[in-house]
Amino acid sequence: MSRQSNRTTDSKKMNAELFTLTYGALVTQLCKDYENDEEVNKQLDKMGYNIGVRLIEDFLARSSVGRCQDFRETADVIAKVAFKMYLGITPSVTNWSPAGDEFSLILESNPLVDFVELPDNHSSLVYSNLLCGVLRGALEMVQMAVDVKFAQDTLRGDNITEIRMKFIKRIEENLPAGDE
Amino acid sequence: MADDVLFEFLHMEMVSHIYKDQASRGEMDKDRATCVSTLEGMGFRVGQGLIERFTKDSPSFKDDLDVMKFICKDFWINVFRKQIDNLRTNHQGTYVLQDNKFALLTQFSSGKQYLEEAPKYLAYSCGLVRGALSNLGMDCVVTAEISLMASCKFQVVIQKI
Fold it and tell me: What does the subunit section of this Swiss-Prot or TrEMBL entry state (chain A) (predicted)?
């Protein structure tokens, strides 16, 4: 029985490695297909967006989080529930702008970059850009337009990984033409 | 640790991207084959890496059948969260692994509607198996076929030089 439980923790870890390695293979393939890093970053963001619009459904179904009252609550849910559920890490929420519409997520560790080193000729590649797209896509499905980007990245020599999120506007639900 | 569902979403998006990309580049005659080989190639590299991590502490395998049993049980459980349901062999280097509820296909409808599209979603997994076996010293060709949704057969043919 104890051997069984050993297997399950191992298999969780192995699944994490499967995800990390698959992501690595994907970025490698994109670098081969597109000539410059900017294009790769854009593609990663687009793919992340497509994943995010679906991931939000999975998230809402599995967590019992209700509607967030404001952007601060949204930030807390993202850091403490979503990141914990999907990546097993809890980033800290800091650096709020005075208007309360911008904040930073500080990640102590980033599971996507296990085993990864950026070669010199890819210095402007934002390796984990998929995350930005995922956050953007997921929040758009809950009526928030946000701008997400990496402010600091350990792969590019910074000490920590920092994601900067800015609230742009609330997306109004559009009724189809002809409805009153 | 990354959640299981993340891999499924990433895999879906990868397949979609590779096919969209190929279509936009406009080379119709070789599109399907290139997409499949791109995905398979990605799986190959990942399979090699994964098997190194899985087996670094285990003793070496007695023979090919032992390796295949490992793939069917431990490897499949770790990657797809279940075992292979049926392993058949002709004892001459060909093995057929049958999975009746393949994890990457269960989200499709279980009727015939997407049967034609389903092979796209198997290419990466074929590569995973081929990469894993390659790093265990077995060069092989892995193909997959589906007759009924979510149930698929992976055929492994060991190349003897």
Answer: Homodimer.
- Of the residues A5, A28, A29, the best mutation for testing chain B's interface (the one with the most B CB atoms within 10 Å of its CB) is A29
Interface of B with A (CB under 8 A): 1-7, 9-14, 16-18, 21, 38, 42-43, 45-46, 49-50, 53-54, 77-79, 81, 124
Place of tokens 């639900």: A173
Please tell me the pTM assigned to this model. Answer: 0.89
- Whether the Cβ atoms of residue B124 and residue B105 lie closer than 8 Å to each other: no
Mean pLDDT estimate for chain A: 87
The DSSP output letter for B121 is G
Reading the block at residue B26, the tokens are 């406009």
Nearest to B44 by CA among B54, B33, B36: B36
Chain B interface, mutation test: which of A9, A18, A63, A109, most B Cβ atoms within 10 Å? A18
B14 falls in which pLDDT band (50, 70, 90)?
very high
